[in-house]
Structures are given as structure tokens and as C-alpha cells.
Amino acid sequence: MTAFRFDDWDLPTRSARPASQPPADTPVAAPAPLTPPAAGHAGAATRASDKRIVNGQGDIHQLAPFKYPWAWSYFLMANNNHWTPLEISMAQDVHDYHHRLTPTERHIFENVLAYLTTSDILAMRNIGLAVMEKMTAPELQIYQARQVYEEALHTWTYQHCIESIGLDQQDIYNRYRVVPQIHGKIALAQRRLDSVMHADFDLKDRDNLHTFALSYFFFAVVFEGCWFYNGFTPIFALQRRGLMKGTAEQLQYIMRDEVLHAGFGIRVVRELLAEEQLELDPQALRQLWDEAEAAEQAYAGYILQEPVLGYNADLHMQQFRFIANRRARQAGVAEPFPGAGNVLPWLDEQANLRKEKNFFETRVTEYQSGAALTWD
């Protein structure tokens, strides 16, 4: 009888069952004792220096020693921001939506939610299906596993807002399919995802590696760093006037997650390019920014067909360009929109979750989790 082996995971796979079965009355010999693994096989030690972001030679199952301790720090910070949408009251939002919002404000509110519900699922699929399996350092994968959970949590949050207010779910969830300006942003991101989501996508090929780096750059820098960060602003503009404060607080928690997602992704981009001695093609980058700006321009023109007090499509686009320049500097590439100004300085304040509640009406976790976060 062939013995099962548990110390040979890096050796060729062998069948645990013999090709032919002995007669039922044939005595079965005791299995041979396992021998210590030979050097260079299952027992060989792994070193931090063997790890790489992609194409690494280290043991993917061995967390430490770390080569990227900053990735573990991101995982710990993410857990300090743990929350669920059920912790935030939506009662006032129900009243605001049905009795205080104008038709223009309801149009903005509904379509921002319609875009976000689909976007976070797309972000989840990108990390879970196209990125994690290509990472070869477990400390990177562990944070990304948390990121996948958070994208699912964000989707739950939007669904909770939609259910609480009593919106037509079929209408809201189908808008990305029937509204061209929402569909354009989703289709652009899906194309980037499709470019790298192949089981046989070999990152040892330099062209494939560049395609992967550009796709990762798009999702970290543009999708999460710009579109999400700037995408909550219409709701925050309502919040600043005392409207839809429950939804806005939900988005503040999401925004804190997204800041970490973007910060982590930008760090990965910088280190990946350095490790692989890879430079993103300037023309490809220019096309990426131009496509992102055009899609955002169409989206802003649709959701902000009419301005609301303190906010309009032009402000939205100016702030998009300003945030894009910031993310580009962080990623170590040229600013795509030189001279863009910070026209909404209050937007960055939303990540700080300033509490204006009575202490006894606020969960203690809000103070513990918020105080433990640090920001780049």
C-alpha cells in the first residue's frame, strides 16, 4: 500500500492509490515510516528576500518573516475601522428623502447609489479574482482578503440605505445597465479587469506584466483613489445642509476604507515598478487618464444636470482633477492635470468622521476605531 505523504508539497503529485487493487484477502503491509525531507524539498527554509509582489519564490503559505511589513500594518489599521451599516440610524434619511429633498436632489441621491452599488462589486471582483492569486507574498494577500470583505460590506451598506429609504431595487440596480453615463464608467473599469483576468496570464512576460501593472494602477489610483473618493461628494454636499446625514455617515466609514485601499494600492504600484524595473508607458498612462476624465465628465453631467446649493458638475470635475494630481504624485508619476485647484477643501475633512452626537447616542466602537486609525 502506498503511504500518504504530507511533507512533499513541492514535489510532483503522486497518486495515493495503486493502479490495481489487490484481492480482498491479500494481507496489507504496514506503511513504511516517513523519512525526513531532503534538503531543498519540503523542509527547506524560506527567507524574506525570496518574496516578491509577483513572481516570487518564497513560500506563499508562510506569513513571516515579512518583506512588506507595511502591508501587515494596513491590515491592522483596516481592522481598527471595523463597523457595520446597522450601527447608524437611517430614520431621519427616510423623512428627508420623502419630505425634504427636491426632485433634483433625489435624482442625485438615487444615481450616486446606483453607481456605487455596482462599483463596489466590481472592485471586489478585481481584487478577489484578478489580483490576489497573482500576489506571491502572503502579507499582501491577507490585507487584500480584508479588502474583499470590505467591498462586500460596502455593497451591503448601499443595499441597507436603499431598503431603509424604500427605493425601487430593480430600478436602482438596473441603472448602470440603462443609463449610458453610469454604464460608461462601469464598462471602462470592466475592460481593465478583463485585460488581466485570465487563468494563464503569465506575469513573467514583460508585456503581460505591464498590462497588469497598468490595470492595478487604474483600480488603485483612479477607481478607488479618485472615482470613489470624489464620488461620495454629492451626498456630502447634502449632508452639509443637514440632509441625508445617516447615508452620509455610512459613506464616511466607507471613505475611510477606500483611503486605505488607495494608499495600499499605490504603495504596491510603486514597489512593483521598482522590483520589476518597469516603467509605465507614458502614452498608455495618458490614455488611461483621458478615458477616466471623459467617463467622469459624462457621469457628472448626468447626475448634476441641475446644480444644488453649494455643488455643481463643474466643481465636481475640478475636484476630480485635483485629486487625480494628488494620486499621481503619490504613485510617482506625472500629474495628469497640472494646475487643478482644490475647490472643495472640506472633502478631506469627511475622512475624519467628526462626531457631533451626544456621547450616549454614539457607539463606543466609533471612538475606539476612529482614534486608532492613522493616515498617510
Describe what this molecule looks like in 3D.
With 376 residues, this protein is mainly α. It has twelve helices and no strands. The chain has a single domain (89-364), classed as Orthogonal Bundle (Ribonucleotide Reductase, subunit A), CATH 1.10.620. The protein has helices spanning 69-80, 91-99, 103-131, 138-165, 169-178, 180-194, 206-231, 233-239, 245-275, 282-303, 313-331, 364-372. Helix 1 packs parallel to helix 4 and helix 7 crosses helix 11. Residues 4-22, 34-40 and 355-376 have low confidence and may be disordered.
Give the helix level as a range of percent.
Answer: 55-70%
**Main sheet, how many strands, which sense, barrel?**
none
Q: Give the DSSP E fraction (strand runs of 2 or more residues).
A: under 5%
CATH class: Mainly Alpha
Q: What CATH architecture label applies? A: Orthogonal Bundle
What CATH calls the topology is Ribonucleotide Reductase, subunit A
Q: How many β strands by DSSP?
A: 0
Number of helices: 12
State the fourth-level CATH superfamily: Ribonucleotide Reductase, subunit A
By helix and strand content, what is the structural category? mainly alpha
Apparent shape: globular
Identify low-pLDDT runs: 4-22, 34-40, 355-376
C-alpha Rg (nearest Å):
25 Å
Q: How widely separated are the two ends?
A: 59 Å
* H/E topology pattern: HHHHHHHHHHHH
**How many domains, as an integer?**
1
What average pLDDT do the residues reach? 85
